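S., here's the first fold you wanted:
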Amino acid sequence: YKSEEEMDHWVASASAHIWKKNAPSLMVVHLANVDHVEHGTGRDSDETKAAVFDANNNIKTILQAVDLVNTCVMIVGDHGFYDVSKSINLNVLFLEKGWITADETGKIESWKVVAHSSGGQAAIYSKDKSLRAEVLKLLEDNQVLGYRLIKKAQLNSLGSYPDAIAAITAKEGFTCGNTAKGEIIAGTSVKGQHGALPDDSKLHTGFIAVGCGIKGGQNLGVISNLNVAPTIAKWLGVPMPSAEQRSLRIVRDGRKN
């Protein structure tokens, strides 16, 4: 495919065809273009608005093929977006402390302490236990750079990064980088980002359910992404004993299930 937009059109058409031909018990469809465009142009750009409009048309293509009397459809997202203009490169700080060695491009060659970044967050790892207190103090003292420190106890409560000694979550306007060369705070070509803790409502996403007798106009409030899979499993009659969250209480045909 030449673009994510073209890929999404094909995915929508293929999904409609598969549904009409086979009517599977479960179909999971991923439309990727909105995410791609928001990363490149920002949360509220004209390009993003056009991509959302296009995604709406792709969903329409799928819905027109589906029997909504007997089929439940959920339209879900995994995250929202905020605009960014700067990157936090903690590995530059660790290089200055002598905890990292890197080549001239900033690629890490060896490390005692390292930040492994993904979007708006970074997990901090330390091979040397004797350095951990110093690392944590350094991270605590430098939160003015544009992040919030997430200590081990909170990571444990979130079930995140079991081998990390800490993590950071970027504030709005910042993303996290992996390079060990250049400026600690640098410009970035990324215009929109996600991955930070969803304290900010901009990082929330949407949930829509329709069909199969679902009563219209229900407001579920703020839900967790972890509610979605148990709800699907319950409606399919599939046990999910390992689920961390309960299924959603959605009224269908006059009953909550």
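And the second, which I think is the more interesting of the pair:
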Amino acid sequence: MIQGVEQARRDLLEIYRAGVDAVAGGPVVEAFLRRTPPVGEVSVIAVGKAAQAMAEGARRALGDHLRDALVITKQGYLDRYRLAEGMQGIESAHPVPDLSSLEAGRHLLDYIDTRPEGRELLFLISGGASSLVEVPREGVGLEDLQRLNRWLLASGLPISTINRLRTRLSRIKGGGLLAGLGGRAASALLISDVQGDDPALIGSGLLVPTPDDHALPGGLPEWVRHLCSTQKEHPPGAAPLVDQHLVATLDQAREAAAQRARELGYPTTLHRAFICADAENSGRRLALELLDLPPGVSIWGGEPTVRLPPEPGRGGRAQHLALAAAQVIEGSRDLCFLSAATDGSDGPGEDAGGLVDGQSIARGAREGLEPDNALAHADAGRFLESSGDLITTGPTGTNVMDLMIGLKWDLGGRDEHQGF
């Protein structure tokens, strides 16, 4: 029988970590390449939050086949001391592109163009690539890119719609990068951060031809419709086909988390529903569901959304969801709930998410904070910091969206204050 809330919190973190470790960029890339080794020389191009981890996995597997590599990742995610000889590293902007994103885009095209014609190109793509590299179409400036991305991030739209709109402003997204391959053989390994694991949406589909004649979604501001209305010019002739292989997905992370929960002795329920609705509503719904379930571990996954106010506070969707769940389980003596991003970065900050229990709201209140106000101002991170419920992991080397994990235990007739 579980001994109280502190053990429950430790176990939840261990279950979450098992899910993240199962989709770590280095091991999954290495395992794939050892199963299907290349024939000749290879140049690696890694783009995304997991770029460095994926590139290191490729280096271990490829050995002498690897001639050089370009690694483009988020600012603060690059460890230059770990870059092997022949690897170039670039840090760029996320989640809103800036001049470094444009520089990274130009460097990417130059790097591809200067590789020997007979050399195979291996792309390693993970979430975050949409912001980290950009070559805007003619007539689109950096201010346009930033204005659109800021609006999209605050809109509450699903990532599939966001990435479709991003391709409208780009020369390299939506398969635009194919034109720069110059006929070179290429393949791609992908870590999926989108529902359905569609390669056309991961990193906004750098290597997947995507028609941009699809209708724009309704309800867009007129300036967004105007900015996204111009069609891209596609290169003449048939685009080369690039083999795309998924090496890590949310399903794999959920399965691994469930396996660890069972190893710890918990009855475990793996929920297949993809959590993509409003984060506040989702947090309350999952917590209410947890209240009605028998003791054990419940695991969900997805990427909820948050519609941001004009001046948002601290935090991201996972922290928002966790705080909403904390309101529902307030006062409970037998429940803990975790919501965290698998990449270690929830929103613009450096925290991964939150782990709450039945006393979280009371701890925040003692610091003078009110949960409804925090949710209304997208300031869940400040509340969770005060209540001692933030999860901070640093970069994890992967990105398969978010895990939500609930733990309910049998009190076994203990005193109501035991465990707090």
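Why I say that: Confidence is low (pLDDT under 50) at residues 414-420. The longest helix spans residues 5-22.

Talk tomorrow,
H.
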